[in-house]
Amino acid sequence: MKEKRKMTAKEKNEATWGYFFVAPTIIGLIILNFYPAVDTVIQSFCKTGDFGKGNIFVGLANYQRAFADPEIWQSLLNTIKYAIIEVPFGVIIALILAVFLNKKLKGTSFFRTVFFLPMVCAPAAVAMVWKWLYNQQFGLINNVFHSNVGWISDPKIAWISVGIIGVWSIIGYNMVLFISGLQEIPGDYYEAAEIDGATGIRQFFDITIPLLSPTTFFIVQTRVIGALTIFDLMFMVMDKTNLALSKVESAVYVFYNYTFTQGNKGYGAAIVMILVVFIMIVTVIMQRAEKRFVFYN
Amino acid sequence: MENARTRDRVSKTIMYIVLIIMAFIMLVPFAWMILTALKTNQEAISVSPFYIFPHNGWHWETFSEVWKSYNFFLLYKNTLLMIFFRVVCACLTATMAGYAFGRLKFPGKNFLFSLVLIQMMIPSTIFIIPQYLMVSGLGWLNTCAGLVFPGIVTAFGTYLLKTGYQGLPKDLEEAAGIDGCNIGQKFLRIMMPLTRSSMVSLGIFTALFAFKDLMWPMIVCTSVQTTTLAAGLAKAQGQYGSNYPQMMGAAVLAVIPMIVIYVIFQKQFVEGIATSGGKL
Q1: B262 and A120: CB-CB below 8 Å?
Q2: At a CB cut-off of 8 Å and minimum separation 6, what does A227 contact?
Q3: What range defines the domain where residue B53 resides?
Q4: A241 in helix, strand or coil?
Q5: What average pLDDT is seen over chain B?
Q6: Where in A149-267 does DSSP place strands (E)?
Q7: B150 and B203, same structural domain?
Q8: Residue B154's closest CA among B131, B121, B120?
């Protein structure tokens, strides 16, 4: 039997302060996050009346409609395709740049500043600029290369073009995290390898990659979730009349459209639930992968 | 020996070439944004000849036109107020909770902290509809309070500050206890000032996230008078999308303040992002 010990006055005092300090955060989390999460689940089983009033229980109808809706499947596929461009390219390019900038070359701080610039810009502005660069008739890219590519209007390549904006935007962020990971690798590893006559490239694959794997895993995990909830780029780059829209729009974009443009919150809630379950599955798979591929000292 | 030195020089040259090409790719969109803003619309949509630089003088007046026609003063003010209140709220609630989770003992602590961790794992898209309904029910649509609302507390910041407080040496607090400080005084006078760097990280992170967010301001502040820079740009694009110099002028005005702040506080920005990482 566990004996229930009476708290001393000092412990009671400490506990009181503890509750006082965590109260705002815990109450806030319950009101702002936990209640909404539950409410979204409930709404996904309801038909929403006007102004969020008069929820009518409709069972699985929203889900049945969503699963039968090709637009939902297409948007999930679009989201995955976006992630397949943004995550690997964003991570690999950032890793290479981070390794270079960690070599104590001259001008390192200039390059770091430049690569990080897109991070401090609103994606809305970034997307506007790229939309203008991609413009088929007047855009910089087509005019400099004398090409006539419909970068964001050709359904076959528009998803790649949007993915490139994503990579361009995220490189600096990934790079900064990689640099701080690299600085934690003890220098003696490289010195020992140097004495053994290992080349830079050998050192990169034998020392840097394994010792950096916790950082890499962290970045991949946060970026996968970030990419799967992408919205801003699609919203700003793709006009509603763009024929390629259906091949580019992300799941969150479709959610936004149904919920806030068309006012169908029940259906929107069902779309979010499908996306969240999908993200949870991906997260679990990544956690499994972590145990196999990540090297912790 | 000679061989190694040549190899070293070759690899350095390759690295510089890669870095310079990448820097060029990163800077071209910024340069093009500014150059387009300085052109007339005829120049911007002229194809043959295609102008890289403005041809008939540099039209700086575009910026003042855009400033007026898109109500940039209000957009700046709204964005600044939202960022200010979000940073203050996030830092205040997170530092309190972080201290309690990191340094104090109380029953149920682990359970309460698990709530914080759970929140960090849930994609935030799931909160949006009910948060919107709450804001609308409170009559806070098109207000600053509505913009700040989802950012009053932060699970991520609580986690960050908890780690910060746990890293502080134990004897500090004991010495203060002997001097007759109560827990509140200890927190305010001794502990909180020592976690300044974590607070700065959280502040920068919160500010950046609030500045970049597009969906929330678009939902709760539909009027141009009350919305933020990001959402204001989206509105402007919908209305004046084909006047390219004006659009790019608006984009420049929207990104400039954060870039200036970033260039000044570069070290804090980079360290803040590196230590907090987190979810964006």
Answers
A1: yes
A2: A79, A82, A83, A86, A87, A166
A3: 2-63
A4: coil
A5: 89
A6: none
A7: yes
A8: B120
